[in-house]
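Running log. JK asked me to keep both predictions on one page so they can be read side by side. First protein, sequence followed by its tokens:
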Amino acid sequence: MIFVLDMDGTLIDSNEANFLSYKDAYESILKENFTLEYNHSRFTFKDLKKYFPHLTPKQKQQIKEEKTRLYAQYLSYTKINQNLLNHILKFIKTHKIFLCTNAAKQRVEMIVKYHHLDFLSGIYCNESDNKFLNFLKHYNFDAKDIIVFENDDSQISCALQAGVLKQNIIKIGMCYETT
């Protein structure tokens, strides 16, 4: 069997690091205070556009780029799901273990390095549509041979659409500890 782990919200809680990166990028580009408070939920580029509709396309792009540049200084705010990691490591000699994510490759590489996740058999950073379907095509794996660890219901639906068996999908909750 092949273990396929989602990153954000499953193996890694990166919500605070993501929020702080956006906050600093916003303040750096616009030279004004970021008025939102961190609430433990995921803050995304869509949220930036939603909460700050006055931003021009150029400002949004500058904030996005600055957020990427600043992210490394907030890696200490990311937390690994130690319970999941401990479970996965029991199978390291008998199973291939992949990270499959919609996150940007540069950020994924920073997080993997920071948390010493060098045991991974591979990392797949999806660029469009169904990450699980694209992962299966990329590695030429059979959907029946993978076990998915995922926190997001919409992504679980994607796994099912890709042919992953329902009994091979494990929904992960929020249970993070610092390492």
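And the second, directly underneath as requested:
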Amino acid sequence: MSEIFFMGVIGIYLFVAGLLFVYGTNFFYMALIAWRHRHTRVLAPPLTRVPRVTVQLPIYNELYVAERLIDAVARLDYPSDAFEIQVLDDSTDETVEIARRAVERQRARGIAIEHVRRNQRVGFKAGALAHGLASATGEFIAIFDADFVPPPNFLKR
């Protein structure tokens, strides 16, 4: 009985040792490949055209940061013909008026920006994003939360 038990333990030990050997060999092989190609850089081909981007700004009662966010996104360094901003405003306080004024100011500067309001706040933030997505024209969608101020080169990176 004990002989069968020890043979089973030895079998399990050899099986686990074999698995560890295969794992270690694979790890070493992958490390060797990475080391050989450590100076090889794969660069993306140059863009033939700039993709259209829609920036969505979901805000809800962001009284103190809404204007700062809208102004920062309007300063993004990106071609104006391939760039639109959607301010998705579900606010119930003075943020509505602050956002409206900021949107009008940026629109006067020639920025493609719209202030999107919903009658009912169905789905909360996800609902606002889905509502805005229905009218978005961008190939790519960038969503910035109210507490994030993007650097001017964010979209180009």
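Observation for JK regarding the second prediction: The beta strands are 53-59, 83-89, 113-117, 140-143.
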